[in-house]
Amino acid sequence: MSVIEPILNRKSTKIFKKTEPISKEAVETIIEAAIQAPNHHITEPWKFFVMQGENMQQFYDAAMEFQKNRDISEEEFERMKVKMISKTMVAPTVILAVYSKNKNKTRGKYEEDILAVGAAIQNMLIQATSMGIDSIWKTGPVYNATEVKSALGIEEDEEVVGAIFFGENDNAKELLRKRTDKQEKTIWL
C-alpha cells in the first residue's frame, strides 16, 4: 500500500463545480481517516461539523453578521458580501475541523492537541484525494467569529482550526503545485 500518490497529487481547489454534496458515506470515510491522526495521550481533541445544503446558508448568514458587526464602511461591507460567498459558499460540502479540549483527558496540552487537529485535517485531505474528491483547507478570523460559532453550535472554548471544502474542481486551468526540492530543506546531521 502506498500513500505517496495521493500526497503528491493533492492540490488545493479554489473553484468547485455546483454539484450535489459529497455522499454521507464519503464524508464518514474522510472523518474516519481524520480520527486516525496521532495525538499524544489519545486525547482525541477534535470535533467535525459537516455543512451541506441549507446549513451552508446558515454559515454564510453568520459570516455576514460577523462582517456587519465589524467597524467597516458600507462600501467595505458590500465588498465583503461578495468575498464571503467565496469564503463560505464555494463548495457543496464543508467540514469544520474544531479543536475541542477533551475534558476527560486532562493530560492533553494545547500545543500538542492543536497539532493533532492539523494532522487530522491532513488525513482528511489525503483521503479525499485518494477518493477523487477535490478539496481546500481555509482558515481565518471569520471561522472563529462569535456569530459563526454561535450559529453552528460551536462552544466558546472550542477553536475552528480549519474549514475544509470538498467537491469537484471547476477550474479550467490545470492546478499546479510547485514545492522546493527536498534537498534544499533537508539537513543531515
TrEMBL record:
An MF annotation (GO) of this entry: oxidoreductase activity
Keywords of this entry: Flavoprotein, FMN, NAD, NADP, Oxidoreductase
InterPro entries hit by this protein: NAD(P)H_nitroreductase, Nitroreductase, Nitroreductase-like, YdjA-like
Nitroreductase domain sequence ranges: 7-167
Enzyme Commission code: 1.-.-.-
Residue sites binding FMN per the record: 10-12, 40, 137-139
Cofactor annotation: FMN
Pfam families given in the database record: Nitroreductase
Record's cofactor remark: Binds 1 FMN per subunit.
Ubl conjugation listed as a keyword: no
Family (UniProt): Belongs to the nitroreductase family.
Protein name: Putative NAD(P)H nitroreductase
Organism annotation: Nosocomiicoccus massiliensis
